[in-house]
TrEMBL record:
Organism: Pseudogulbenkiania ferrooxidans 2002
Keyword Lyase assigned: yes
Keywords in alphabetical order: Lyase
One BP annotation, GO: tetrahydrobiopterin biosynthetic process
Pfam families referenced in this protein's UniProt entry, alphabetically: Pterin_4a
PANTHER family: PTERIN-4-ALPHA-CARBINOLAMINE DEHYDRATASE (PTHR12599)
An example molecular function term from Gene Ontology annotations: 4-alpha-hydroxytetrahydrobiopterin dehydratase activity
Enzyme class, broadest EC rank: lyase
Family: Belongs to the pterin-4-alpha-carbinolamine dehydratase family.
Reactions catalysed according to its record: (4aS,6R)-4a-hydroxy-L-erythro-5,6,7,8-tetrahydrobiopterin = (6R)-L-erythro-6,7-dihydrobiopterin + H2O
Domain of life: Bacteria
Protein name: Putative pterin-4-alpha-carbinolamine dehydratase
CDD domains: PCD_DCoH_subfamily_a
UniProt-listed NCBIfam families: PRK00823.1-2, PRK00823.1-4
């Protein structure tokens, strides 16, 4: 499934994905972990400017997809937490946004 080509959909009243599906999607997302009802990754950078550039690019994805991560922002790292409040758990939206976040940083060889 090419998550980067997909778009988030409203999840109000929907159920979270089951654990098997969560693990399937997780296997395509290096460095991401499931912590309870959150999909989490720490992104490390060389300085505050680079960290903030990443956070701003991520904010644009969140705006486009209407799906918003919790963030903790530090001098040289940002910790990204995706979860779907409307489903009280992990839905495809979280994996789509994680994949789009990865794609921000994957430069062509
Ligand atoms: C109405 C609006 O689309 C919803 O409230 C969206 C907004 N952003 C969201 N972000 C996240 N992380 N989870 C949601 O359930 C969610 N719902």
């Amino acid at each position: 499934m090419n998550l980067t080509a997909m778009h988030c959909q409203a999840q109000h009243g929907k159920s979270p994905l089951d654990a098997t599906r969560q693990q399937q999607h997780l296997s395509a997302l290096p460095g991401w972990e499931i912590q309870g009802i959150e999909l989490v990754k720490t992104f490390r950078f060389g300085n505050y400017y680079e960290t903030m550039a990443f956070v701003n690019a991520l904010a644009w994805i969140a705006h486009q997809e209407d799906h918003h991560p919790d963030l903790s922002v530090h001098y040289n790292r940002a910790v990204v937490h995706f979860s779907t409040h409307d489903a009280n758990g992990l839905t495809l939206n979280d994996f789509i946004c994680a994949a789009k976040t990865e794609a921000l940083l994957n430069r062509p060889a």
